[in-house]
Queue: 4 jobs
Job 1
Amino acid sequence: MSLPILQQEGTPGGAHGAKVSQASAQHAMQLSIAREMFDHKNPVLFTKRAPPGITEDVVRMISKEKNEPDWMLQKRLAGLKAFKAMPLPEWGPHLQLDLDKITYYLRAVEQTNEHKWDNVPDDIKRTFQKLGIPEAEQKALAGAGAQYESEVVYHHLKEEWSRKGVIFENMDVALRKYPELVKKHFMTRCVPITDHKFAALHAAVWSGGTFIYVPPGVSMLVPMQAYFRMNSPGMGQFEHTLIIVDKSASVHYIEGCSAPQYSVNNLHAGCVEIFVYEHATARYSSVENWSKNTFNLNTKRAIVEEAGVVEWVNGNLGSNVTMLYPCSVLKGDRSRADFLGVAFAGPGQNQDTGSKVIHLGKDTSSTITSKSISSGGGITMYRGLLRIAKGASNAKNSTNCDALMMDPQSRSGTIPVIQVSEETADIAHEATVGRISEEQVFYLMTRGLSQEEAVRMIVSGFMEPILRALPMEYAVELNRLIELEMEGSIG
Amino acid sequence: MNLSLNPRLSAQLGRNEPSWLAATRERAVASLSARGRLVFLRSRLGNNFDTLLQGTQAPALPAPALSLQEAVVADNATDNARSSLLKDIRAVLEQDITTHNTLLEPRKAGQVLEANSAIQAWWSAGTVLAVPDGADWATPCIINEPAGISRTVIVFGERSSATVVLRAQGRVRLSRIDVVCKQGSRPRLLLLSSTSEPRLLSMGVRCEDGCMLQLSDIIGSQQSTWSRIETVLEDNVSAQVRQGFIVTGGTAELATDAHHVGRNTRSDLLAKSAVTGKGIARFEGLVRIARDASDADGQQKADFLLLSPDAQANAIPNLVTDNNKVSCAHGATISRLDEETMFYVRSRGISAAQARSLLVHGFFSQVMHGLTEQEHTLASAHLHGMLATLVESHQRSIDPSR
């Protein structure tokens, strides 16, 4: 059995920033990933399951099931009201999605002590073992969480970090244990519930997710990870991730997502809110590899205070339609945002992604690097927004979007919107679309590589800036996944 | 008389016209009626359309150009070459410009539809020009666009080579320019406009096999300006578009599209905008490569210079490709005058005011690339006149005591 994320037995853990020896790098390169691993499905088991479709009853049931305070129930109901009132977006990919057939809440197991791996039911444990979660935690992570269907089944933070006051919790637990922190930050000024239709839906039916709080001055050297897994067909997953990085603290959080292949549509409408306070740094990495029946309509946003930094590393593979535009609001002076994104669209897929940056503070800067590959008739579209508000003097941005098209059936495009209301801004945007140059392939083939190897090498080179920003194991995984997706598409 | 959906209006305008032309007006009125209220036109041109309908043909058309009214009735021209060109012009006029562009987002497609339909229904003055097959004109042909709602049709015959200068000054409000560049032609178009009133321009250029287009467009905008230029590239076409926008007030909405539909095509677009005062420049470019348009090369660059604290710039450089045998790139920059360059120029003993003027002129120098000497003289006279006002107003915004 091969493992996707970490399979480096006998080698030192290649944690974020650590140097990895040549030998272990080679070992890692020999990893093989098979799609079956993600497609493996367990029989659907549940102890509580909402009927398909969304009604006030479903929303009240979820809230009651979780024993939530009244203000959260009110928030959910307000979200439901907004969801019903708002129209579907008129722009972007066409969403052939029947929202009445989605199951909005499903609990697979009874509440257990989720801090112990042994308490996780065997079936579910095996799934996560296949995905390599426990190994990863042992070797390279400060903490790990795992969500199965609507509920978090496992959450654990190493003691050295909890002693420093770091909180890494299941979102539902955090709501009970840290009500003040949650009430202040949960879908208030970062992603308001009326932001757009799917944010409103998320507010109504959210369940599970991660809550992270890093106290002032604490610098997390090793990353924390959560893995989200949808198992049953026709299911909607709506996990909420709230990350608060207090003054001068830093954190690196990694998310992985997957689901098995079904013939009915699944919906993922998660929400990520990141608060970066003064002089703090947050790095958020995610590799989303949903099955090709999933609609991935995600909302991710960060508010960055003075001299704070937010870094996004986003990998989008799988899914039927993805609409995801991580947004950074540079509120404080001298704050910074960096976005690195890669999207891969194979047959029948539409990856509509990009990044939004809103410059409000003075001397703020941002960079956006986006790479996309489309193959076998897939569509990749970069859709971005850059806004320099009046008063955000000396703002700087540089945007680079490159698209690679593997065959004549595929489609690619870039739609960057740039709005500048400040004279002192300095903006540069660049984008290219093309295919792999025959000359480059020819050159590599004269060096003894087969055509397929040559193409693979050029694609790896194309992706390099993104892969470099990921921890070693993720970079290898991403690279392998793309190779797997492209198999047979070359030539 | 207000612009309204009154069918009598178009009937009145078309009463002396051949029936096929009057029919185009009727079809356009039908398309406007389907849209209902003319929200877009009203928002851009104000509610009072009185003056708009009183189109006046600019005096003194240069020799080969005809007024549209003359051209459509001159069916029985004796000379064969001339009659075939008139046929081409008639073909352009017969075709509706009111088709819905599905590539644009609904709101923008609606704007284009509304403007084009209004022109097709209510144009009252127009100019046509046909460059005969194989002609090689040494001197530029200068046409002044008529005022009011107008149409201009230009046909470049096969293997012809000519420069046509279209000037829009004064009361030019709502105009449509159709250009057909036939096989192997070398059309050179120079658009020079500077209007103090709100203006809407819709332009379509169709380039047939092997044509090499050079289009230079210099627009001065003091009030709201809306301009949409669409170029269609068939096989082996190469199109170079150079645009300079000087926005001193109001909102200038500028869109330039290159649709690659044939094989082996090349488009190169450069748009430079300087914005001052409370001006807002919105530029939207589109390079679109159709599925069968292999071996396409599409380049697009938009640069903005912000010269006052209240100036705004919005850029949307779109790129949509359906074919992988392409090489496309686009870029956009937004900045103010570079301080280091300013310092360098000043260190050579040049005053701040002069240095600023030099830099602004330098910013636009690329727009003039590729022009012949005669074209250059015309374009630079136009540009420099506008830049003098621009630099002056910029100077004032920095130093109000002047």
Job 2
Amino acid sequence: MKRRKFLSLGAVAAAATVIPAGLSATDFRATAPKAWDAPTSKEAIESMFGSVAMVDGQIEIKAPKLAENGGAVPIGIKSKLDLEVIALFQDANPRSAVVVFELGEGGVVDLQTKIKMRKTANVTIVAKGRDGKLYSAVQKVEVSIGGCGG
Amino acid sequence: MSMKIKAKIKKDVTEVKLLLSSPMVGKEEAELKKVEVSYITHVTAKVGTKVVWEASTGPFLSKDPYFMFNFKGAKVGDEIVIETIDNKGETESDKVVIK
């Protein structure tokens, strides 16, 4: 179920006229703007997904036990589930939401990215399956040197 | 500004590695460092007209964001197109042939 939301927020209004990619895609910054300003994962997740029950333990977070560079902490996400939306949150920065991935049909849940973490904190994944259910996973990541700024 | 894309098929799964170019500076970091807020807000990957992967992104991704993702349904020789847009509305696009 994809909703085409045209951007109406001031900061991104200019973008709406020049974004061919946006027309076929869901922009989670536009559909859930509050979630991106929430300081904690709990608040960010609630404003993006609502406060609903989630299934735990079917998503694997691959992260270093001790991240030496908080400016680029590698995070891997793997699952055998058929997921369409996968959101990454953390509690190591002023705001929690980092990235929301969307997989097309045929998507394989094997993702990697690098995030900033300026202190040791939990990384939380919340994902929506094509079965309509929400799944989550949490992992604590220790950071020895903080990320630059943020 | 530029990006690096690698796309390779192993069995029936296409693995894409993507390195974007952006300082990924949010409002807190901008104030601290007296620099401009500048970060990519959305990335889309398409094969033909089909969106195979996309990401709504924020400034807590690392500088010059890195992504790896996998999908089924493409074949060797198909073209994968990556499009990005940043907080100022500036877009960038690049493509690579899947090997």
Job 3
Amino acid sequence: MSQSSLESLIAAALDDRLDASQRAELNQHLRTSHEARLTWHRLARVHAALHRFADSGETFTPIPLPAPVRKPWKMTLALAASISLLAAAWFYNPKKPTGPNTFAEITTRHSQWEGMSPKDGPLPSDTPLFLKAGFASLTFSSGVEVTLEAPCRFTIHGPLSMAVDHGRAAIKVPEPVDQFTVRTPGGDFVDLGTEFGIAVGSDGQAPVILTDVYEGEIEIRPASLATQRLLPGHGRALLGTGSGAQLVANLDSDPISLADLHRQLPANLPNSPSGENLALGKPVFAPAYLTRPHGSVFPPDNLTDGRTDDSGVPGDWSFWLAPDHEAGSFTIDLLETHQISRVDLQNTRNRNIGDRGLKRFRLLISNDNRTFTPVLEASLYAIPLETRSFPFQSFSFPSVTARYVKIEGIDHYRSPARPVNDPHQGGGLNEIRIFEK
Amino acid sequence: MSEHPESPDESLVDQLTRHQSSLFHYILSLVPDRASAEDILQETNLVVWRKASEFDPSLPFMPWACRIALFQVKAHRRDQARDRHIFDDDVLDQLAGEAPTSTEARPIEIGLRECLSRLPEKQRELILARYQPGASVDTLAESSGLTSNALSQSLFRIRRALAECLERQLRTS
């Protein structure tokens, strides 16, 4: 018998969970091994001391206390009775929310909700929620912590399970929890006591789910594929469902990575605009944009959607990418004429090799969408790979009247990792903000 | 010989009171169920009291009391259905023969406090919850959302860490 199986039997014995065959196995080992009997006595000693500590009725403080006052044996029944009253008030995890159907507490940052709008505190289970903007963190009664990035549709099912139907989540499962399950439209992702990220999206017809392990190990359990274990540095995309499902390590030419996921609630909403952003939510037109299979679609509307940094999920990314080989261009319709004197641009970059961001650009304005007047020509910084919060760059100019604002890319950043003849290169931009002042 | 020897009764009361924890440790190493161990301890106390006249105060108390406790353990087992016994009779005798009867429980319990303070908070909360009166692995698993098996294994890992820490504590104390 191995040490681990002996320990497993002893664990069952101490917790009154031995079945008949395990009992026989434990006895046989103890009968024949002096070492096993020593192991038993070592653990039984801890078992007894823990019972005695509990019997003392004292609560634990990290500072070592004097030895408990031993109760005369005649007092033990009375003591047990009083302790049972304390036991009625006992609850294992002080963070556990109250109420019969709450398994998690929520803390939000700059959140906007569609439908039910939960307040910070206990969160109802089995209730679908849609975080439309901002961030939220969930602290489960099991100790599991989940950070959500908008837009995210999710449901709490229990202390060890939740569903993410759409959106990004970072899951941290501390010891001694062994498993936490994230249900998605493509299958279950089971955290085996570790930290991992997930981005649940779609290609328009079938789910596309990206996952990346930061520490430890997870199991991917697609409905129709064999379970696969995943270690750090081996991101995967689960494509589709049913018999057509597949698990891949690359999308297009890029390895799967969720390196830019928020793994904890940001202290402040990054890059809050200064002043009224006239471009927010306004329509954007582009002659073309990058589209590839599996939800790798990057339309120009992403430029004014208010979502910053490298965020989003397949089919719903937060940034715009020009078609391959082009720096690209796009035009924002402010829907009415405005006096404008500043644009703030947030560049983008490929999260694996750092290319794709716009380098030089021209800004032009128009009131009829036909005749455009150049306003400025400038350069954007490349965003380093190690940067997780992307900076905005401001470009001011003398105030002009405009309804249409056009950005023309002149060139874009490249990476030595993509040869000159590599087809997968072009311009991109994350967000544009336009201000009167 | 003391100039004013205590009466045998006073000496026995003192010994019995001082060794309650040690006796509990001994009994629990043979019958790991807490409620059964408490019952057996109470029975042992009564028998020790009844046999007070047989106690020789010049000899160590614990080996004598442990023999009585072992007899009570066996009596308890006779009253139980056999399938409730964790240990077979021969294994019980082996364990009883090797159980430390001279070890004071007090340094163990002081050492445990120190070791508990070194555990990560979550592990400490979990192990203390398991030992609250009335708690069981099944109820704890239900409230914490773990399977009973997973929880039992987690508890075991914590106990093992405590055992290792406790040995270091006892070596240096």
Job 4
Amino acid sequence: MKSLLLRLTTTAGFVALWWWATDVLSAESPILSNMSPLDALTALERVFAAGSIWGSIGVTIERLGLGLAIAAVFGVAIGWLLGTLRQVEQSASIVVQFLRMVSPLSWAPVAIVLFGIGTAPVVFLIAIAAVWPIALNTSAGIKALDPNWTLLARSLGASRLEIIRTIVVPGVRAHVLTGLRLALGVAWIVLVPAEMLGVDSGLGYEILSARDMIDYQLLAGVMLLIGLLGFAMDWVAQTAFKRWAAATA
Amino acid sequence: MGDLAANLRGVSIRRGVGKNARKIIDGLDLEVRRGEVLVIVGGSGVGKTTLLHALAGLTTPDSGSIDIASSGLVFQQPLLLPWLSVRQNVKLGFRFKANRGRISGGRRAIDAAVNSLLTRLGIAQLADRKPSELSGGQAQRVAIARTIVASPEILLLDEPFSALDAATRSNLQQWLLELRQELSLTIVLVTHDIDEAITLGDRIVLLGEPGQPLTEYRGDASAKAHIIAQLEYSI
């Protein structure tokens, strides 16, 4: 109860600071004075009432889901290889660290050349950004498995497939879920700038569109919406993963 | 095999490859009689665990033969799966296809067998706990329950009490003797603790260097001085 009160107070303090920075400190600024909390909420009310924003949210979430799904498939496969085959891990470590450190957005020109303009390059950028947290966590999970568990399962008569189903998958699950949650955060951060690359829908596009229409109220509103959606998704993921991890821990 | 629960003839096991290959066990003959507690002692690296793994079918001998009744192995560490409850860990004994045939009646029969065993072993109150909530002694009891739930004829134990404190170890040794009586188990125990060997063993076998014949003792106090002398000699 005390911590909830503290959180609410801090959040209220942040909103007050936002209001002070825009409505008081930047009252003379033609841009910032239109980006107060009240302006953001008014703009959001307007676009939700018109219904236009729902399409953008849907498209953005769809791209996020697709990108994460592709990242999960490749990430788990790469993590599996890195975690199980020491030679692969040793030989690929420099390449993996290098690729991990290349900013996902620097792939944008390559993505556009490869996939043209539209949803495909956005999904590609999300997948590139999200694949490493999943791969590295999967690999760490596999390495954390006690090799004696396999010996134990074999002593109880388990086949190779039964060992994977009974020991490896549940043993690695919590790590993969942690990787997915981290990937969700990274993907959400990359998604918005990725949607500024020549697409004509999505929340990133809405930001550019608001700027082009000199609608700074809407700009603040979409920024607020992006933050709220990211917060909500992380909360849902955290709650769901905690529940799944509790079932496997 | 008649009175024998296991019969090993001329068993040799090698480890390593090429120049690094060395024989761990060389031409070993050993008989395990039904209903006995056979204790295997020996210095470090003489192949006690390898022998036990060969009996459990985890290691295939390079030559020789092993005839053995159904067996179950208990490791030095309990190796309970941390994401499963005690009950689910014990159920693992039935989970794999190879052991499922040992009980008929499906899931309900398995649940009944597990619950009944946990009660018989005096650990029913632990059934819903996770391994992290168990003491070392409790965890090892659960590990033994997991091994015997599918009713193996031979229980193979690899220094199962070595990580426990003296009081818990003594307690578990008595518990194991009661268990053996109640379930008419044949037990093969590997230990480096001579007192444990004498407390539990009907027969004690001293495993020497590869190729050396086994030295056998009766499991009574008179064996202790001989075994210690032999071990010191071999060290």
